[in-house]
Design goal:
Blueprint lengths: L1 H13 L8 H10 L1 H19 L9 E4 L5 H8 L5 E4 L3 H11 L5 E4 L2 E2 L4 E7 L11 H7 L5 E8 L1 H8 L4 E4 L5 H5 L8 E8 L3 H14 L4 E6 L2 E2 L5 H7 L6 E8 L4
Helix pairs in contact: 2-3, 3-4
């Protein structure tokens, strides 16, 4: 995420007003930085690959939790999702989401954080609309910059979103260390759930998540992706071992109900 943030930030700093959020800026960056374009295409391909394990039809309802600037929201629209709920607490990232998707009839935008509490809490903004912004102080302390800020953002449990918008068939969670605080409240069968794990800092929480989801979704396939390469199905034991690595790594885990 930090790589993405650095490559899309320069023009937005020098172009005034709403123009800095125009899709043409993203297009220019993709032309100037072909490596970014390749990265985004590989990441989108992983989601499409993984979804095929569950269905050949488009997603009906997607929760993009930690939507940031909307890259994954756009992936799901490209997958012909009928409806996407994009959830993001960072005020600067939310401005970009609003500019990109306000006119889309398929996207609902919610400026809130999800967790295991309700109310306003400290939100650590490492930099505006950075994918590294977090509610976890240890993560913030690891990545803090000279111009980082401590803001305040509202938090609510995911069960409230379920009640308001319905049970999704796809959930993606990328929230820099708050994944367990969200997932431990889920007690219903979700066909497709993926979450990001930053190892080793959040290794223990990741193991809690794996144990919880394996108990909740015992017949789902478990896959993982590192460097945007989707694995074959792995066992829970293999997944738990990945969390023991002392080397810093980012892994996406996928729990997917297989096609009948």
């Amino acid at each position: 995420m930090l790589f993405k943030q650095k490559t899309v930030s320069f023009l937005r700093r020098i172009i005034p007003g709403k123009l800095r959020y125009h899709p043409i800026i993203d297009w220019i960056h993709l032309k100037v930085h072909p490596s970014l374009s390749r990265y985004l295409k590989r990441e989108e391909h992983v989601f499409k690959q993984a979804w095929k394990y569950y269905s050949d039809e488009p997603p009906t309802l997607v929760y993009d939790i930690g939507a940031n600037e909307g890259f994954t929201t756009q992936y799901f629209l490209n997958m012909k999702a009928k409806r996407v709920i994009a959830i993001e607490p960072d005020p600067e990232a939310f401005k970009i989401l609003r500019f990109r998707f306000t006119k889309s009839k398929k996207v609902d935008l919610i400026q809130v954080a999800l967790g295991d509490k309700t109310g306003p809490f400290p939100f650590y903004q490492i930099s505006p609309h950075s994918g590294y912004n977090t509610f976890v102080y240890d993560w913030y302390h690891k990545h803090v910059l000279t111009d980082s800020k401590i803001l305040e953002a509202n938090m609510m449990p995911i069960t409230d979103i379920f009640q308001q918008h319905g049970l999704p068939d796809l959930i993606k969670i990328d929230v820099e260390g708050m994944e367990w605080e969200i997932i431990k409240s889920i007690d219903q069968d979700i066909p497709f759930l993926c979450f990001e794990a930053n190892i080793p800092l959040f290794a223990s929480n990741t193991q809690f998540i794996l144990q919880h989801l394996k108990a909740l979704l015992p017949h789902h396939l478990l896959l993982c992706s590192s460097n945007n390469v989707l694995s074959d199905a792995i066992s829970i034991i293999e997944a738990m071992k990945l969390c023991d690595s002392p080397q810093p790594m980012c892994i996406d885990f996928f729990f997917i109900r297989p096609k009948i």
